[in-house]
């Protein structure tokens, strides 16, 4: 995946962090998820269209976890 539009990256980061916080994620998990959502949002145009689904996020994180 390549970035197309950086609009919404910060919103995606915040949304990912908040979602992980609400599900009692660890601090590391919160920031990992925040970074993943922020990155995925840049793969589409605009700030809402590319917001990933839970499945897309899980697949992305599984593919990019060390």
UniProtKB/TrEMBL annotation:
- What InterPro entries does the record point to? PfkB_dom, Ribokinase-like
Looking at the record, the residues that make up the Carbohydrate kinase PfkB domain are 3-52
Query: What Pfam families does its record include?
Result: PfkB
Instruction: Name the chain's protein.
Output: Carbohydrate kinase PfkB domain-containing protein
Give the species: Actinoplanes awajinensis subsp. mycoplanecinus
Question: Which lineage is the organism of this entry classified under, starting from the top rank?
Answer: Bacteria, Bacillati, Actinomycetota, Actinomycetes, Micromonosporales
């Amino acid at each position: 995946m390549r970035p197309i539009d950086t609009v919404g990256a910060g919103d995606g980061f915040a949304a990912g962090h908040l979602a992980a916080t609400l599900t009692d994620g660890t601090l590391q998990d919160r920031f990992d998820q925040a970074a993943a959502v922020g990155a995925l949002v840049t793969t589409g145009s605009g700030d809402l269209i590319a917001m990933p689904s839970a499945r897309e996020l899980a697949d992305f994180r599984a593919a990019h976890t060390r």
